[in-house]
Design a protein that fits this description.
The protein is of the alpha+beta class. The protein contains three helices and seven strands, in the order ααβββββββα. β6 and β7 form a beta hairpin. This is Peptide deformylase.
Amino acid sequence: MEISLSSLKAAHAILMDGAPFLRQRSVEIEKFDDDLAALVRHMIEIVQARRARGLAAIQIGVPVRVIVATADGKGLAMVNPVITRTLNRFAVEMEGCLSVPPSQWRKVSRPAKCEIEWQDIIGNRHAEGFSGAWARVLQHEIDHLDGTLITDREPA
């Protein structure tokens, strides 16, 4: 799917739970270009403005497999991320979401560690293991790419 800069101008509002668009699976990025870089910059601006920990492109109405995340004072953008392995040890923590009203935030159980393969905004491939806050935030955002919200998970 191609990303158009004109569609980003409209992509300011965060879609909320109940919007059918959030339930669809995002499509893989095949073209690594200036429009993709602009999308990532726009998503980072939203995360910073909202003081959030992450955002999936689908949350702003762009159904592509792109996420941005922050943890431990650092930021990361992932294109076409895939969780390749998780640890069988789980951690339970409270999770919020820009697409879910605070009254519906909940404790969620997730694997404490995960391994992810992804591409950066110019198409280079990466693979890395994540734990702690990084593991939680990245799993949460990748859930969005598959149409899953925290409201779909049983409260832990």
